[in-house]
Amino acid sequence: MTVHPRGPLWTGRASNRAQWLLAAAGAACLALGVQLAVDSSWASGIVPLLMSVIGCLAVGLLILYGTLAFVHVAVTVDAEAMEVRCGHIGLPRRTIRLTEVTSAEFVPRITPQQWGGWGYRWRPERGTAVIVRRGEGVELRLGDGKAFTVTVDDAENAVRVIRAHLRALAR
Question: How much is the pTM?
Answer without folding.
Answer: 0.77
